Automatic annotation (TrEMBL):
Source taxonomy: Bacteria, Pseudomonadati, Pseudomonadota, Betaproteobacteria, Burkholderiales
Ranges that cross the membrane: 12-31, 192-213, 286-310
Keywords attached to this entry: Membrane, Transmembrane, Transmembrane helix
Top-level taxon of origin: Bacteria
Name assigned to this protein: Uncharacterized protein
Membrane listed as a keyword: yes
Keyword Transmembrane helix set for record: yes
Length: 341
């Protein structure tokens, strides 16, 4: 069971990791705005979905009016390049300059409408006709050039029968399944970026999680300052949500600096075993190892993400309020027993 001191240390560490995660998330969002990884993963997911490594069928889908209205520019399959780190289908990624204008999200109903229209009327060369019956759609699907797409359409028609809405629902579920896989690609990349940014921030700002924890254990005033700042974090984060990334970074740095945590490269904040004018060669090797381990702990904490630490900090604060005695209970005098009848 947590005692008061241990719980306050946990609150201080959760507050530190939450603030670090928010700072690194803002940096990660800025990088995402440049790299357009969501659009890249969506395009790659569509090619995997359609079994279209060369991007020809995917190009027809992107050029359909229902999809084309979601972005500006053109889809050019000639700009695909193969990544040596990702073998197999879907390893080809759209180059950065070619994916900047591609959409980051396609609604499932838009995809299904565009796909069925392509199957029914081709790439736009045929004149549009009335909506096809399931039997007519089955006949058109059987004539499609893609064996993979033919099989998927026949599966959806077999499952949906004569109900067009059921056919569309099965196709939407097929689309959503692959988009969940694409979301997994993006999530893993985001975690890797957060770890890299978190490690860089830990080194540049000297955020040694182990050293901070030891100082919190030894310094009651520091614990109280961290708990006081953590109690205001929910209101502070609500105000930061609508700000620009650079404004959020400045506000978060100020918020972290008001506590006075032992971070940074000031004397005594790092490797207290060093002499005031000593160098790294005079440091204890074990101290250097613990410093690197503290940086890694900070980076792994950032990789867990701000929502994790926000939720955990809220749980810690709720637990602390339940363990802390109320002023009335602490100061109220004991009541005398009632007189016997």
């Amino acid at each position: 069971m947590f005692n008061s001191e241990t719980l306050e240390v946990a609150i201080g560490m959760a507050f530190l990791f939450l603030t670090m995660s928010l700072i690194c998330t803002a940096i990660q969002e800025w990088i995402e705005g440049i790299m357009k990884w969501r659009a890249m993963d969506l395009e790659r997911g569509l090619r995997v979905l359609l079994d279209d490594d060369q991007g020809k069928l995917t190009q027809q889908l992107y050029e359909h009016p229902l999809i084309y209205s979601l972005f500006q520019g053109k889809y050019n399959p000639d700009k695909l390049w193969r990544s040596p780190l990702t073998p197999g289908l879907g390893a080809r990624h759209m180059r950065l300059h070619a994916r900047r204008q591609l959409p980051s999200y396609i609604p499932p109903e838009r995809f299904v409408d565009a796909l069925l229209d392509l199957v029914a009327h081709g790439d736009g060369q045929r004149p549009a006709a009335a909506a096809l019956t399931p039997a007519e759609l089955r006949a058109r699907a059987a004539q499609h050039d893609s064996p993979h797409l033919r099989r998927v359409l026949q599966w959806a028609l077999d499952r949906g029968g004569d109900d067009p809405a059921a056919v569309r629902q099965h196709l939407a579920q097929w689309f959503d399944g692959t988009m969940q896989r694409a979301s997994g690609w993006y999530k893993r990349r985001t975690q890797a970026v957060l770890f890299s940014v978190g490690l860089g921030a830990a080194v540049v700002l000297n955020i040694d999680a182990l050293h901070v924890m030891n100082r919190l254990l030894a310094d009651r005033a520091l614990r109280e300052a961290a708990v006081q700042q953590a109690s205001q974090v929910q209101d502070a984060q609500a105000g930061l949500a609508g700000q620009a990334p650079d404004q959020r970074l400045n506000a978060l740095r100020q918020q972290l600096g008001t506590v006075g945590l032992p971070i940074g490269w000031q004397p005594g904040a790092c490797l207290p075993q060093l002499k005031p004018h000593g160098g790294w060669r005079q440091a204890d090797p074990l101290a250097l190892l613990m410093l690197g381990l503290g940086w890694l702990v900070s980076a792994f904490a950032v990789m867990l993400g701000a929502p994790f630490w926000f939720d955990l900090l809220g749980r810690f604060m709720t637990l602390r309020s339940s363990l802390k005695p109320t002023p009335a209970a602490a100061t109220a005098p004991a009541q005398a027993p009632p007189p016997p009848p």
